[in-house]
Design a protein that fits this description.
The complex is a heterotrimer of chains A (about 240), B (about 230) and C (about 230). By secondary structure, chain A is an alpha/beta fold. The N terminus of chain A is likely disordered. The longest helix of chain A has 16 residues. Chain B is flat. Chain B has one domain. About 5% of the residues of chain B have low confidence. Chain C is mainly alpha-helical and about 230 residues long. Chain C has one domain. Chain C is about 80% helix and about 0% strand. In chain C, helix 2 crosses helix 6 and helix 6 packs across helix 9. Chain C is globular, with a radius of gyration of 18 Å. Chain C starts with a helix and ends with a helix. Classes of the chains: A alpha/beta (about 240), B mainly alpha (about 230), C mainly alpha (about 230). Chains in contact: A-B, A-C, B-C. At the A-C interface, helix 2 and helix 3 of A face helix 1 and helix 5 of C.
């Protein structure tokens, strides 16, 4: 669905009134979010603000107590298999099996998404992630940085339209981080929508089209990115009350 | 704050009902000991019957309601159903203890053995274990929504297990004749005994309602306290 | 439905592949089963009870204990690195995820049973003879049911700190009907009894499988959807 005649492109991801609590702890207290093609929303906020919970709700890994998430117009429910297909998710865990090689892990992902020739798709993805030499190693034999690269390759394998990333730059060295930024920028230009949760705004500031700050389960701000990070930081500190 | 108030009200009402039920039970025993004929073959030991049978029936009632409200919870996702299921399971296990202690006390003089693998005994014993496991699972889980979902699943599966245990134990028994023992005196109960039994059953159902109400109120108060800690 | 089945098979194949790479769990379960058989042999007074009288119960208690060990690991592999999230993110129906895990567990428990059976014949000096096809059949029939329930309970138990303890406590009551049935049919098979004497039990076992496989497939979503 490419955007037509200069009007706002259709929403890839739409969340309305999300609420979620754990026991008595109300983590999210009514959160709206719309992500359109080419948009990269950076979500910041202090520890415990509900960033990871928000991401898991958007990925359909958690059900909201109130509110709804729609992906390409389809509601995200337990039985909404097709609604989940366009989502790519990079968690703070690798989501890889320690008893399988990287190639086997990615080939399994390809099978879950019904991609043709899973083994070839997996090899190609590992190659473009610079992991071709380690394709037959199990994740437990890899450094954290390499595991993170494999985890990102897994999330991108099925060419998602919406990418949800939880601290994606963790453990990546400078070169790998730069390559990831380039890859993400390329996909944004091609019409991907993205939500990045991070504590280190500097790593994604260049990519971001919008900045949103989560504080005590609500948006403290959600605005287009303007100017350099240095001008935003004092405002951020004010918003989270630090 | 209205939740705290309604929790307090529930506990108060539940306590009143429980007190009433205990008084009724005391009455039942006056009735049973003083005004109900002594069973000819079993003698005074049969008196425990008025405690044992209603306890067993109410335990089964409690466990069935755990399964039913579990099924409803999976469908409707209403937290009240989970609170009720948890309360009912606890009271059911308590009644189960009454049932499993009074049973052997009666069986020893009458059957000549503390325990036998009779179909009904076996069924109730496994149900009791199942719901002890249910409570253990609840205790091991901390997230309330996870606890509610998991225990609802166990409740539903448990409800469906009952006919299977019953059937397999029944098949087992009919094909392997038991040593000759006296049958529980279920058929042709004299009217005085039946009356006492029915009154006792009513008292137990009342006791069930009272205890579940108290337990439900306590659960509500706990949740309310957690919520307030969060708001603070 | 074929699509769901294809996905279930992919998930099961993944588990089998992972197990073949590590082999630790399978080996421990087999050794465990062998040890249980040995211990049973010493728990029996050979002058009082003939091995063949005890054989069906010994066989099934061993199968049950070995299955418990096997089921404990079913969802621990999914817990590592949050891999279960990847299964739930994919466009795979929850029921297909359950069936995939069930098939993998059946392969696992089936392998342990296949190794245990010859050991049992050896240790207990039982002549299976022409009872073998029947025993294989009743083993499959009984195993499917309790492994289905065990699969869903193991998905729950891994969320607690006492998984190894909680799984048997929850599962054992559910093992009662299949175990009683399997023991009864096995002893009749060994005694060369006619099929009509086993039919009631076989019906019960089949009904148990149908009811619990269906029900567990349906409620699995409630276990994994947070």
């Amino acid at each position: 669905m490419p955007s037509s005649d200069g009007a706002e492109s259709p929403a890839l991801l739409e969340a309305r009134g999300l609420r979620r609590s754990f026991g008595g702890l109300r983590v999210l207290r009514g959160v709206d979010l719309t992500v359109r093609a080419g948009e990269a929303v950076v979500v910041a906020g202090p520890n415990g603000a509900g960033k990871t919970t928000l991401l898991r709700l958007l990925a359909g890994l958690m059900r909201p107590e109130a509110g709804e998430v729609r992906v390409l117009g389809r509601p995200l429910r337990g039985d909404g298999e097709e609604a989940r297909r366009p989502i790519g998710f990079v968690s703070h865990q690798s989501l890889l099996y320690d008893d399988l090689t990287l190639a086997q892990n990615l080939a399994f992902t390809a099978r879950l998404y019904g991609l043709p020739r899973p083994a070839d798709v997996a090899r190609a993805a590992l190659e473009s992630a610079g992991l071709a030499a380690r394709a037959d190693d199990a994740p437990r034999r890899l450094s954290r940085g390499l595991i993170q690269r494999a985890a990102i390759a897994r999330a991108l394998l099925h060419q998602p339209r919406v990418l949800l990333l939880d601290e994606p730059f963790t453990a990546l060295d400078a070169t790998a981080a730069e390559r990831l930024r380039e890859a993400l920028a390329g996909r944004l230009a091609a019409g991907l929508g993205m939500v990045v949760v991070t504590h280190r705004l500097g790593e994604v500031w260049g990519l971001a089209t919008r900045v949103a700050v989560l504080s005590e389960g609500r948006w403290a701000c959600d605005e287009p990115r303007r100017g350099p990070l240095e001008t935003f930081l004092p405002r951020y500190l004010g918003l989270v009350g630090a | 704050m209205s939740e705290a108030a309604s929790a307090r009200r529930l506990v108060r009402r539940g306590s009143a009902v429980t007190l009433l039920a205990l008084l009724a039970l005391a009455g039942v025993y006056l009735l049973a000991l003083g005004f109900t004929p002594i069973e000819a073959r079993q003698g005074p030991a049969q008196k425990i019957f008025y405690l044992h049978v209603p306890a067993a029936w109410s335990a089964l009632l409690a466990f069935s309601l755990v399964g039913l409200s579990g099924g409803l919870y999976l469908w409707l996702n209403d937290r009240r159903l989970d609170r009720f299921a948890a309360s009912s399971a606890e009271v059911g296990v308590a009644f189960g203890v009454v049932m499993l202690t009074t049973g052997p006390i009666w069986a020893k003089p009458i059957w000549g053995t503390w325990w036998t693998w009779d179909a009904r005994l076996t069924l109730t014993l496994f149900l009791f274990f199942l719901f002890v496991g249910y409570l253990a699972l609840r205790a091991a889980l901390h997230d309330p929504s996870e606890r509610a979902r998991f225990s609802a699943v166990v409740g539903v599966l448990g409800l469906l297990l009952v006919p299977f245990i019953h059937l397999s134990v029944y098949l087992f028994r009919t094909l392997h004749p038991q040593p000759v023992v006296l049958k529980p005196s279920a058929p042709s109960l004299p009217p005085e005994m039946l009356r006492t039994l029915l009154i006792s059953t009513l008292a137990f159902v009342l006791l069930y309602i009272g205890l579940v109400t108290i337990r439900y109120g306590v659960a509500l108060a706990e949740e309310e306290r957690e919520g307030r800690l969060d708001a603070a | 439905m074929p699509e769901a089945l294809r996905l279930a098979l992919a998930i099961a194949a993944k588990d089998v592949r992972a197990e073949l790479r590590s082999r630790t769990a399978l080996l421990s379960a087999v050794v465990f089963a062998a040890l249980v058989l040995v211990v049973f042999n010493f728990a029996r007074d050979p002058t009082a009870i003939a091995a063949v009288d005890l054989a069906p119960s010994v066989l099934w208690v061993t199968f049950a204990l070995a299955a418990m060990v096997a089921l404990n690991r079913a969802f621990t592999v999914e817990r590592e690195n949050g891999a279960l999230d990847a299964l739930l993110l994919a466009p795979v129906p929850r029921g297909a995820v359950f069936l995939g895990k069930l098939l993998a567990n059946l392969a696992f428990v089936g392998t342990v049973e296949a190794v245990t059976l010859p050991l049992f014949v050896l240790f207990f000096n039982v002549d299976l003879g022409h009872a073998l096809p029947g025993i294989l059949g009743v083993t499959a029939l009984a195993t499917i049911g309790f492994v289905a329930v065990g699969t869903i309970f193991s998905a729950m138990a891994v969320r607690t700190r006492f998984a190894e303890l909680l799984l048997p406590v929850l599962l054992l009551p559910f093992m009662v009907p299949p175990l009683i049935g399997a023991v009864q049919v096995t002893s009749r098979l060994l005694a060369d009894r006619p099929l009509s004497e086993m039919l009631g039990w076989l019906r019960l076992l089949a009904l148990y499988d149908v009811v619990f496989v269906t029900l567990c497939t349906m409620v699995f979503a409630s276990v994994v959807d947070e």
